[in-house]
Amino acid sequence: MAKRRDSKDVIGGFDALRAARQAHSDGLVPDVEVTREVIQQDGTRSVAHDSPGSRIKRTVMPTRQEIVCLECAHIFELSGRSDNTVCPKCRERLPIVDLTISDEWDDELYTAGTVTIEAGGNVIDGKITANNIILQGKISGGELRASRCITLECADEIDASLLNSLDLKIGAEQKQKLNGVCTHRNVDLAGELEAELELSGSLIIRESGCFKGSYTGPGLAVEEGGGLLADVYVQA
């Protein structure tokens, strides 16, 4: 059986750090300059000179982002920042670039990042494929295909067949009408939506949201203050 060490013989990490700082401030620890080699992304090398204690800083965790493969829908996590990655399941190479559309668009676009269609943007044809798509402008043709979520931040009437995504989100203070049947997993509603929803997950109506139309799906949550004026068919 392992013996428990007497607490008098143990110095905690915080106490040791505090003692070291006090010793340095009292002049008991000599100032020693530390040199280190720094290699830049372009391969150039330089030497940095650090004063004592300058390298003791808050640790910053690498950026983590969830990626949904655009080909096989496999979900995985990526640490750090990169312009591309490879799906660990299907080995498809995925570009990871956040892009913005500010005018008329009628071409193909493919990225595992986020595409934002600004207020002046208008998708008239083509296919935009991304992890996330934010629509602030208009869409009258083509297709928006998001492996994760499409966020609607525009007051407009849209053909539901142009929106293909796992989840759908309606921003606050938006009045949206979707024509046709909308099939998604979850819909997060903070604005006003009129639609015919057939979901595999849940409809979540926030306190500022209001839903009109018909809803079929297994889950429904309405926050206090949220509005629901619809035919509802909740299925187990």
Number of strands: 23
Oligomeric state of the chains? single chain
What is the mean predicted local confidence, pLDDT? 79
Instruction: Report the helical percentage.
Output: under 10%
Rg of Cα set: 27 Å
* Shape by Cα distribution: globular
Largest sheet composition? 9 strands, parallel
Number of helices: 1
Low-confidence stretches: 1-21, 28-62
**Series of H and E elements:** HEEEEEEEEEEEEEEEEEEEEEEE
Derived structural class: mainly beta
Distance between the termini: 53 Å
Percent of sequence in beta strands = over 45%
Descriptive notes:
- This protein has one helix at residues 13-25; strands at 34-39, 45-50, 64-68, 75-79, 84-86, 93-95, 99-101, 104-105, 109-110, 114-117, 122-123, 127-135, 138-139, 143-152, 157-159, 163-170, 175-184, 186-189, 192-199, 202-205, 210-217, 219-222, 227-234.
- With 236 residues, the chain is mainly β.
- The chain has a domain at 170-236.
- Strands 7, 9, 10, 12, 14, 16, 18, 20 and 22 form a nine-stranded parallel sheet that branches. The protein has a five-stranded parallel sheet with strand order 15-17-19-21-23, with no helix packed on it.
- The longest helix is centred in the first third of the chain and has 13 residues, at 13-25.
- It is globular.
- 25% of the residues are buried.
